[in-house]
């Protein structure tokens, strides 16, 4: 199991619970598959899990998965793996931060229900593009060689 960690939002420190074993397994699987997809894409760089990312002065988050552009290190895809004990921070606070940032892609990965909510930026904020579960496959057009089935992502 991982350690507890901190994030800072508008100058306020948020203490995050240590992720549980299932959270870490899902994170590891997702990183592994995205890393293979990014290895063929020279335009993006995958950061290590929960790397510190400064969003604005006084706001530092630690996404479970973060892809940045190679040219200017701009955040363009984030995956947050929701923790049952600490879900409000990811689903409300950080989602609002990413929406304000106009993040191009957000994946809310929920091991409680074995599903992934896929959001794309729009002129009106983050727009839900789909909720993937069961036998569906997560793909990203900007990472042509990336795909993972929900069964593979959430297998026990």
Could you describe the 3D structure shown?
The radius of gyration is 15 Å and the shape is globular. A hairpin with a 2-residue loop joins β1 and β2. It is built from three helices and twelve strands, in the order ββαβββββαβββββα. It has helices at 21-38, 87-101, 150-154; strands spanning 5-9, 12-16, 44-46, 53-56, 59-61, 65-69, 75-81, 105-110, 115-122, 125-132, 137-140, 143-149. It has 156 residues and is of the alpha+beta class. The protein has one domain (5-154): tt1808, chain A (Alpha-Beta Complex). It has a six-stranded mixed β-sheet with strand order 3-6-7-8-9-10.
Can you give keywords for this protein?
156 residues, 6-stranded mixed β-sheet, two-stranded antiparallel ribbon, 12 strands
CATH topology name, in short, is tt1808, chain A
Going across the major beta sheet, what is the strand order?
3-6-7-8-9-10
Q: Structural class, judged by helices and strands?
A: alpha+beta
The CATH superfamily is: tt1808, chain A
How many E strands? Answer: 12
Any idea how many domains? 1
What low-confidence regions span 5 or more consecutive residues with pLDDT below 50?
A: none
Count of runs of 4 or more consecutive helical residues = 3
Cα-to-Cα separation, first versus last residue: 16 Å
SSE order, one letter for each helix or strand: EEHEEEEEHEEEEEH
Taking all Cα atoms into account, the compactness measure Rg is 15 Å
CATH class: Alpha Beta
CATH architecture, by name, is Alpha-Beta Complex
Quick overview of this protein structure:
The chain has 156 residues and is an alpha+beta fold. The protein has one domain (5-154): tt1808, chain A (Alpha-Beta Complex), CATH 3.90.1570. Helices cover 24% and strands 42% of the residues.
